[in-house]
Every structure is written in C-alpha cells, then in structure tokens.
Prior knowledge:
Radius of gyration: 21 Å
Structural class: alpha+beta
Order of helices and strands: HEEHEHHEEHEHEH
Low-confidence stretches: 16-24
Amino acid sequence: MATAIKRKKKLAAKRSRLAAKTMSDRDDCPHCRGGSESFRYMKSIYRFDIDKARKLVSDGRQPVELEPDDVRFSVDTSRIYPQHVKHVNPEYPGIIAHIWYPEPDGNVLHGHVLIDGHHRAARCLELGRPYLVHLLTEEESREVLLDGPNIEGILSNLESQISNLKSEI
C-alpha cells in the first residue's frame, strides 16, 4: 500500500514539473503571442478572421472527427513550428471553412480548408489520437473571409451564364 502511495506522489510531482515546463515553454514561445489572429492560405490569396470564426463555433455545435489522411495533409502543407507543438492543447477542436477558387476557364472549385488548429492537429498526430474540428457553414465561411477572390461576383456571373444558356436552348 505504501508503495502505491509513493508512486502516486512521484507521478503527481512529475506532472507538476511537466506542467511548469510547459508553462515555461509557452512563455518563451514566439508563436504564443496574444492579440487578434488570422489565417492566410494560398500565399495570402485568402485571409480568414480566426477570432470571428472561434466566436461563431462557440454556439454549442458538436465537433466532428477529421479523417487521419486530412489531418496529415493539413499538417504537411502548413508551416509547423515544433517548439509550439510541444505545448498546444489538443483538446480544443480546429475550425474548417468552405473555400471557393475560380479557375481560369470560369469553373469555380469548392472545397474545405482547416483555418485554425494546425499545431493542435500536429500534436494529435504525435499522440496518435483523433483530431476534432468544428465546421463553418458556407455563410459563416464567407463571414470570416477577410480577403479572397470575389466569389459572390463569380457565382453571380455563373448564374447569369447559365440563365443565358437556358434561354438559348
């Protein structure tokens, strides 16, 4: 019995040291700055308001598990700072937004992009655990998009082209 108590005390002391080290790492981390946050995508063609996105997803919606291949892709195609990954909290879900990209031929590609939580995703990969994300609606995705192609204009133009084609038929 005394051995079990000693082990528990040692474990508690180790956790305390790790927590203090993590706080120290966080204090020294250049990526743990305060202030407003945005996410840039495709060499800054797109810029998303992360603070606004976080407010939107704090409405009680349930997070969903991101497929492991998608987690790996998001991490592999992002700039990840190893010193930051060490102390991020993977308990907080990431955020995924809808994205539209106009091709030169006039087609508009529609997809999704992780706009918040790349370092938490990397941490989940390190720990071998699932990564959860909140999904923005299309409307919310437009709301948090600060800079990007004029998708509304492109979609309006496409609708006009479709209407013209229908009238020709």
